[in-house]
């Protein structure tokens, strides 16, 4: 109904639609499809959350293995699939207490993006990764982080996904760290 209201005023305006909860790509289904005007379907991709948020307060829960770098085959399946419902987790990992290990690399990213690609292809609609990012503190340092950035951007490009990086700039009021590419220094200038 919100899209219809927008199109009544401007029939060329794109309506951006994303699934609840938090634009979870696994919740993007046919029930979100609208007709009557242009629409773009959105999903987040902060994955694998346990790694991209490394050393972030609260990003590592008790029992999780939070010191594994991107590219490793030692990630617990349950740690990199916290966005899944219990039935989905059972199917993918064997259950919530699984000790199954998975390799998180470009192939893994490709598999994780498949649900969005499939939605776009099956319904012939455009999709947009509305936000994705990587914290500067992610385990493995610059080389590992650069490889992740190269891999994820290559996979977005291969699928012709539009995307927005979270977050371009971070003011000094927010403190050090975070996902920002640029951060404000004490003297008010910005640096990478």
Let me know the largest β-sheet. 4 strands, parallel
Question: Could you estimate the helical fraction of the residues in percent?
Answer: 25-40%
The tally of beta strands, per DSSP, is: 9
Strand content: 15-25%
Q: What overall geometry do the principal axes of the alpha carbons give?
A: globular
Would you list the SSEs in sequence order as H and E?
HEEHEHEHEHEEEE
Q: Count of helices?
A: 5
* Strand order in space, largest sheet: 1-2-5-6
Protein structure class? alpha/beta
Structure description:
The protein is an alpha/beta fold. It is 30% helix and 16% strand. The protein contains five helices and nine strands; from the N terminus they run H-E-E-H-E-H-E-H-E-H-E-E-E-E. The protein has helices at residues 2-9, 49-52, 86-93, 106-123, 141-159; strands spanning 15-17, 39-44, 75-76, 101-102, 127-132, 162-165, 169-170, 182-184, 190-191. It has a four-stranded parallel β-sheet with strand order 1-2-5-6. Strands 7-8-9 form a three-stranded mixed β-sheet, with no helix packed on it. A two-stranded antiparallel sheet has the order 3-4. A hairpin with a 5-residue loop joins strand 8 and strand 9. Helix 4 (106-123) packs parallel to helix 5 (141-159). 21% of the residues are buried. The model has no long low-confidence stretch (mean pLDDT 88).
